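FAQ: What does the model actually see?

It sees only this:
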Amino acid sequence: MSSIREYGIIPISTDMVADAIGEYRSPADRISRLARRGDLIRLQRGLFVVAPELSGQTLSRELIANHLYGPSYVSFESALSYHGIIPERVHMVRSSTFRRSRQVETPLGVFQYTTVPENYYPIGITQMLYEEENYSFLMASPEKAICDLIICTSGLRIQSERAMREYLYEDMRMDFDDLERIDTGIIEQCIEHGRKRRELRYLLNVLQNE
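And it is asked to produce this:
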């Protein structure tokens, strides 16, 4: 059991669990018992995470999101909440991928993946590193998360800079404590490679003129 505990909060495959538990006549039965007992949490077929009661660490849903379906990075309201841009705590973890859109339901909540253009995908991805816990995950920068939200929200049509300002500050209740830290270069790259270029141009102009 100690070898399983050493994986901490990093999701692990069935083969990794089997290697950790050692020689058993039926590793699958042993893994099933560990899951029923609550030592392992089954995220989806072939993927587990050690229960926090056993690992002694708090689970990261952002890290789990990266492992459930990829390539992907946490984005949309999930990233904006994480960065402190919107006040709401988001329950569903939303991510971007250049693969087919998908939704995964797990004991730890719902994870949603939305398709973005492949050449747009790598722009503005940040690696969030937690050295003490020895893990990291990929997340959109605040600028990329806003762009993802704008280009992927069905039916969202913003016709002016005024409408964009209302969307950011009234509808989404975004709070940019330090606008000087906003990297408008990321938005410019998104305009070049993404969809809804007019709306993204409104976004750029609003943030540059605040």
